[in-house]
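Slide 14.
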Amino acid sequence: MLRSFRAIRFGLMVGIGGGAPYYGDEGAEEAEDSEDEEEDHDSIRDIRLGDVVVSLQTKSTEAVVQYDFGKSIQGGEFFLTRKLNKPPSIVLSAVSALRSKAIRQGLYTLKILKEMTAANPRLAKKFVYQGIEKDRLFKNDIIHLTDKKSCKACCGPNDINLVRRTKREDDTPQLHYGTIGSADQVMKDAKLRDKWAKDKGIFCFEMEAAGLMDSFPCLVIRGICDYADSHKNKVWQPYAAATAAAYAKELLHVIPGQQVQKLPQIEVVADNIIQRFEDWREADKEEVKQQRRTEGEERCLQALRTTQYELQKNFNPARGKDTCLWCLEDQVFLDWRDRSTSRLLWLTADPGCGKSVLSKALVDERLIEKEGSNTTICYYFFKDTSASQRSPVNALSALLHQLFSSEKGARLIEHAMPEFRRSNTAFANNYDVLWSIVHSIARDPRCGKIVFLVDALDECEGEFQEDFINKLKTFEDISDCSIKGNKNFKIFITSRPYWNIEKVFLELIETFPNIRLQGERETKMIRTEIDRAIEARVVGLKKAIASPKTRDLLLKGLLKVKNRTYLWVYLIFKEIELKPRIDSNTVERLLQELPETVQEAYEKILRRSSDPQNARRLLHIIVGAIRPLSLREIGVALYITKETRSRDDLEIQEDKQFEITIRDLCGLFINIIDGKVFLIHQTAKEFLVPNSDTIAPLPGTTWKQSLNPKTSNLILAECCLWYLSFEEFKKSFFEKYPSPRLARAGGAAWRYKRARARYISKNEFLDYSAQNWFTHLNEARNIDMETKKLALIICDVSLSCFKLWVTIYHGKREWTPYSAWNQTLFVTAYFGLGILTEMLLEDSADFNLTDSTGRTPLIWSAERGHETVVKILLEAQADVNKRSGVNGPGTALCAASFRGHEAVVKILLEAQADINVQGCLHGTALSAASRQGHEAVVKILLEARADVNARDAEYGTALHAASSRGHEAVVKILLEAHADVNAMGGEHITALHVASLKGPEAIFKTFFGTRNVEWYTPLSCAAVHGEEAIVRMLLDTGKAEVDSKNKSGNTPLSLAAMSGNAAVVKMLLDTGKVEVDLKNEDGDTPLSMAAMSRNTGKTAVIKMLLDTRKVDVNSKNNSGDTPLSLATTEYEYDSESEVVVKVLLEYGANVEVLSEERRRKLGLSNQKGDHPKERERGGWDHLSA
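Slide 15: predicted structure.
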């Protein structure tokens, strides 16, 4: 184009695209306008079919972005690296002029369209507005029905699957200005569309502008022809193209022609454009190569994004110069890093020695890898600041998310996809499943160099800590040869040298002493580094301390302190920096009062509080909070009292002023990061909170171990309850929006969600109170009667305040339990509120009453794992065997078993619960536990004599349930308990069949030595279904029965041959142990089975078998048929049979077994058999046998 039209100055790229309507953070179930939502109008993009989107750059967004081209940094953010070169200013000025004109008097778009159709009548039908009834925006979870050509069938009854939008006054196309997303593949995923629309402000998706990225000065104009989802069709394309062209025509009319001529010709910069394209190719290869993922892989990856793991890392400061060398120069570390002496390295050091600072440096400075080794580094920093940051499940999800997001690890997502397909996003919250994925990656010899760094293991959730360590140990355990052989996958762990952690590692350390680096033994070197840090800090005080003599006095005094650590240095210098003047007298006084330890420093800081009572309350709130609280949330909790009736009574300060207030209360003891309040260090919490229920501080101290966790929880419970009982929560919100369900029924669900989001944002402590008040109440002690009564009011299902907090608690879920509840006892049972349950029972509450799902309070409490409430209800004589409705979990025992609540299961069994009851949603209690992989519960039930072979018509036995979900350990337990491998399930197949169809590879090992009712072995099942990986795994064990016969006499080879699975046939032949010509009960050999098969791939199988020279090409079965006659029998039905016949003849098949008529029909009348090529090949004959 540039060669033909040398005078081109700029471009207008005019065409069609997929629209990305956006209706705010809550999404769009209903997108009708609302008078009270004008404040959010700018964030709404009400894009319709036929509208026009014009690429326009703003201060915060680009005109066009290539959303599938960029680089993913360590923190998980995706940075776009290419953008469109903006058009000349005269074009942008023209766009601005047209934009103003459209607002004042409208454009001539419709007039231009009418002129076009008038001049071209044959275009009128397609190039006009197609009607509002054909403009359908589906909710983002509605996928097009593949067997339906029209989208009308997808709308649902009463168009329930469509987003309801306000009808426009006329059909004039609207103009939208903003970002256009470009890629080289079609966007057909509504959820991904919405993600990009929200994150990058994309208005429209297309596929052509990417070709001009960074080069050609261009304006992109797109007519909207669909909504970039699976409901794409071509109905709107002509009209959308016409509206875009009409806008372009009108735009050209307002661009001054004389000024265009003054612009430089594109030819002048053509060489520069070519060079840029070359640069892109290099960038593709080297810097920002981005492997494309399928839509399923993208959703799988997003499911693993459960925490802001990069923030947990960045909470730690960067290391100082020449620090952390005690680890970085240690020979154990260097051997692990450079020579892979072990896969696992566990570093320990005392508190305050800079372990987390070291970990951050290892990641950020890439010191954990040998230079040039191109290692993928993934990390997780445990923090004892919230349950989510202590969670080992979140740790595994974060590590895998980083791995799969990286360039080198992107393809390893294939190890997670089977679990994602099996359980959708739920796999990301399954501890055992995530570990199995990690192990699968570690076994993969193609995984590349990977390091997992796990910091502060001692802050991992206590319940899982030992198991987490045991799982880590397997990477070094010599018994796991499949992992041991691959040293590319390594793990670095840090923790304090605590005995409860060391005792779990002990046995492994005795065998492999090089897996531990003991920082606590590097005291001298660490102290040298700390001294170096002190010297640097003193030098940094030159402006504050003018006299070198005074600086030297300070330095010598600080270096005399024996128990100095990095944390101590930080606290001391923060203290020094607060001094308005530092002279020799100031330094002398400071050194006289200098705390010898970090704990003494803490005590000194808090003793200076201006208001010790409020300081203590503030610290109770910080240490007791379930998650870090914002300044506004802290403000509410600090100032609220039982007399406070509304938010206006709180008189909360602005954030900046409130920061000053809490600094005055607690000084350096707290940190404020990104508007959230934290303690300065983990040791600060350990200083305040006792290990036991000690209430009074230790002798000689005011603050040490003075905060009882029970008191902290009571304070927070009261704060939450007082807040939820505010007057404004009793009427305003639910007067307008009665309930989520009614809102949906009334067509106002979208407005309801938007209003709820604004309501929560406005009332800063509402979300925390709704999510956590019951947890704090359950952990509190010495609760007064007034607080208990207030809690009962909050739980009253008939009150608006209850509907408010419980709706917020359940978030965006379509169905919530509270909609089924008809009395307060269900609430207290569901949330485990034992003290309130007792009060209700004393007041004669009906404990056997059922809700609309058929559940009783006992079933709810069992399902949620609340031991205390279960015991209370059982003592009140609640019916332990009462069943829920058909869609419920069945009995309390079934519910507890399905959820894996071991203690509750034991309590219910002691209460004589029926262990073999049928009719549950998940079968029997044993089936329910087996389906979910709860090994401990399965063992408890089997010990209590649960029927291991009990089954129902729909689900089969417990063995079926465990096999279908791939729970290897549970399958093993059930087989040891004599589970019947031949029992038929709901689909009339055995558990072994279920495993072959649905289970992962590893589960087949547990079925070694078993056969189902049809005598299929695990190898037979895998062979018939073409499961190549499973066949390989079974053959690698050396224990598989390669010639085992099923009830019909078919071997794995004959089954694979019949199925046309060439890869499996090759694996079996490569063992050299297979009898290639074994006959089944009908006298058919594997060659005969392949010849009669209708499956594709049989030609390759037949050639493989014949090439072994061990098969009789003319063998006859019991009916006298040879492979050739069997192949020609299927000739009319199978297009591949003609090729098969030629192959068989080439290898010496005797054509005379066919009738004269059949030979003539197949064109084989002149063939005689005993083909000369077969003799040349030295093929099979009776003498060679």
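Speaker note: Residues 11-29+41-271 form a domain with the Rossmann fold fold (CATH 3.40.50).
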